[in-house]
Write a structure and sequence with these properties.
26% helix; serine/threonine-protein kinase; EC 2.7.11.1; 3 domains; non-specific serine/threonine protein kinase; 11 helices; Transferase(Phosphotransferase), domain 1; three-stranded antiparallel beta sheet; Phosphorylase Kinase, domain 1; five-stranded antiparallel beta sheet; alpha+beta
């Protein structure tokens, strides 16, 4: 059973072993308390190592952010860390402590070794609606907590839902990667996210708020029950996908939905309402019978979704340098790219979806540029002297 307990951590995933890397030299404030071990992931400006606390023997993830690689982007790090300081919830990756030096910022994070959501489904021998309901319960609890703080995550997707394995053998989920999270104090207009999970109001640029997270959770729930996303465009036509999302015409095609309960379908419809006012809140999701009744416990029919997930989402061993929880690139404010590296594996493995808004008063006010990069697996992007620059990187 995949998710029977209602709770995964930063920067840890299964896959091919990483190449041997030297143990970093860390300040005494770190080494006196933690033994730093192997690297378990890296991003554009951060690496993540396992570490063990000397006094307790507990393992954590040590995220080391290179400030030199973040010049001009300091605000994005500050924003992410500020949010991580605030959030403390069993379904959210926990920041244990932070240590700041002149050249690096060290974040000691909770460590979870169970892989991500899709890993859990594709590796289990038995998977039912009850399991899917437990997963949604975990996610909705995390969202409810964030929204109570007026925090929107904006990048809820299976890769950021990590599996925590309890001592009794049960598993639960934790939400990680807060690189796009922000406090909502009015309508947001920054276009960001991953295409498969992005809400229609983000695409429409009409202003959005907390409920974009509910839309993403609805898409994930749909996938959990059939193995493919509700809105699908061809691999070479991203705009077709956006058009489908804007229309929000939801279907439950046979035979894939034959054995799924009407209660589950009803909940998904309520989570994927194009009209934001009609879309469920996290509390309404948690109070829905399909969630409170553990996915209708009488429905123990096994769902055959693992193969479809593998086909549509390119699951399996992941590149060693692509680690859940390591923020790839999260710029903000003027001359900014809000996300570089949000991948939609269903649409086209290796395709990056980037939407850039240049909104200074002097140049390109209100100009929206949509750029699609195909088959670029090792690149990041930066703004330099008002130009878009592509850089080689270990993405």
């Amino acid at each position: 059973s995949v998710a029977s307990t209602k709770v995964c951590s930063l920067d840890e995933e299964e896959g091919p072993p990483l190449e041997e890397t030297p143990i970093p030299i860390v300040p005494s404030s770190i080494s006196d308390r933690y033994k730093v071990g192997r690297m378990i992931g890296d991003g554009n400006f951060a690496v993540v190592h396992e570490c063990v606390e000397h006094s307790t023997g507990r393992a954590y993830a040590l995220k080391i952010i290179n400030k030199g690689k973040c010049r001009g982007k300091e605000h994005m790090i500050q924003n992410e860390v500020a949010i991580l300081r605030r959030v403390k919830h069993p379904n959210i990756v926990l920041l244990i402590e932070e240590m700041d030096t002149y050249s690096e910022l060290y974040l000691v994070m909770e460590l979870v070794k169970g892989g991500d959501l899709f890993d859990a489904i594709t590796s289990t021998n038995r998977y039912t609606e009850r399991d899917a309901s437990g997963m949604l319960y975990n996610l909705a609890n995390a969202i409810k907590y964030l929204h109570s703080l007026n925090i929107v995550h904006r990048d809820i997707k299976p890769e950021n839902l990590l599996v925590y394995e309890h001592q009794d053998g049960s598993t639960s989920l934790k939400l990680g990667d807060f690189g796009l999270a922000t406090v909502v104090d009015g309508p947001l207009y920054t276009v960001c996210g991953t295409p498969t999970y992005v809400a229609p109001e983000i695409i429409a640029e009409t202003g959005y708020g907390l409920k974009v997270d509910i839309w993403a959770a609805g898409v994930i729930t749909y996938i959990l029950l059939c193995g493919f996303p509700p809105f699908r465009g061809s691999t070479d036509d991203q705009e077709a996908l956006f058009d489908q999302i804007l229309l929000g015409q939801l279907e439950f095609p046979l035979p894939y939905w034959d054995n799924v309960s009407d209660s589950a379908k009803e909940l998904i419809v309520s989570m994927l309402q194009v009209e934001v006012d009609q879309r469920y809140t996290a509390l309404q999701v948690l109070e829905h019978p399909w969630v409170t009744n553990d996915g209708l416990s009488e429905n123990e029919h096994q769902l055959s979704v693992a193969g479809k997930i593998k086909k549509h989402f390119n699951t399996g061993p992941k590149p060693s340098n692509n680690t859940p929880g390591v923020s790839v690139m999260t710029l903000d404010h003027d001359f900014s790219i809000q996300r570089s590296g949000s991948l939609d594996f269903y649409q086209n493995p290796g395709m990056f979806w980037i939407r850039m808004q240049l909104n200074t008063e002097k140049m390109y006010h209100g100009l929206i540029i949509i750029i699609f990069f195909y088959k670029l697996s090792n690149c990041i992007f930066n703004i330099n002297n008002n130009e878009l620059i592509m850089l080689k990187s270990t993405f």
